[in-house]
Amino acid sequence: MGMVFLSVRRIAALLLLPGMCGAAARAAEVVTLRNGFSIACERHEALSTDITRLYLHADNFMDVAASSITSVEPAPDPPAPTKTESHEPIGTATILADSGARHNVNVALLASVVQAESGGNTKAVSRTGARGLMQLMPGTATQLNVKDSFDAASNVNGGSAYLDQLLTRYHDNLALALAAYNAGPGAVDRYHGIPPYRETRAYVARVIREFNRRVAEQARAVSATVVR
After folding, report:
1. pLDDT category, 20, cuts 50, 70, 90?
2. Alpha-carbon distance 85 to 100, whole Å?
3. CA 205 to CA 210: how far, in whole Å?
4. R_g over Cα of the chain
């Protein structure tokens, strides 16, 4: 599969800057990649015969291998926004914002990982023993100096630090970083990409889908504020 590079560091902060009414314009195109992911963007531009740039909104963009694109189609009209049930405890937003700023990781991305990992349940325990909001394995928690994985702030701070390490390791390739978070860096390196595990591929797609939803929701909120 072609390498995908996505700006996942401070998109949420950028969306909150004033004077960005144009940033919240709805997507005009849907680009489908060979790996099955679909990306909504305002427009695309060929940087070379090998690289195509997808402009997401405002100054945010991602570069993809031109050969990885299978189709570019007009974006459908967005559905009416609906309320989604969240199990995130009060204060989680503050914890995510603090950890995101500390480790330079997009807050919407952290929230998306929390939603996929634990549904916002601070006491969640997986069948393999992963614990807390970001489902840290005991060994990983120890390496990250997280003494209590059921403490929301400690868990998110440790998970954010780990995700930051993975994003750095894979040069901000979000799909690979998420695959490594789910299946381990060893599996990603062994397969030179997202491992062919059904659970991992579904996990990566689910987090990216949630991430895109949250970013779009933030953009709509900024647009509504500017209009008023």
Report:
1. very low
2. 23
3. 9
4. 18
Active-site residue (options: 88, 117, 199, 210): 117
For 50, the token pair is: 């090998």
Residue recorded with tokens 């969240």: 86
Nearest alpha carbon to residue 99 among 87, 111, 117, 115: 111
Buried (b) or exposed (e) across 176-194, using 16+ Cβ within 10 A?
bbbbbbbbebebbeeeebb
Q: Is 73 a catalytic residue?
A: no
Stretch (H or E) spanning 179? helix 174-183
User: How distant is the alpha carbon of residue 25 from its chain centre?
Assistant: 20
Instruction: Report the percent of the chain where pLDDT is more than 70.
Output: 75
Q: Residue 142 corresponds to which tokens in the numbers above?
A: 């120890």
How much is the pTM? 0.65
Specify the length of the chain in residues: 228
Predicted confidence (pLDDT) per residue in 68-111, tens digit: 888 888 877 655 555 545 555 558 889 999 999 999 899 999 99
Could you give the dihedral angle defined by the CA atoms of residues 129, 132, 137 and 138, in that order, rounded to the nearest 10 degrees? Answer: -90
124, 149, 210 from 16: Cα distances, Å: 31, 31, 19
Buried b or exposed e, range 91-105, using 16+ CB within 10 angstroms: ebeebbeebbeebeb
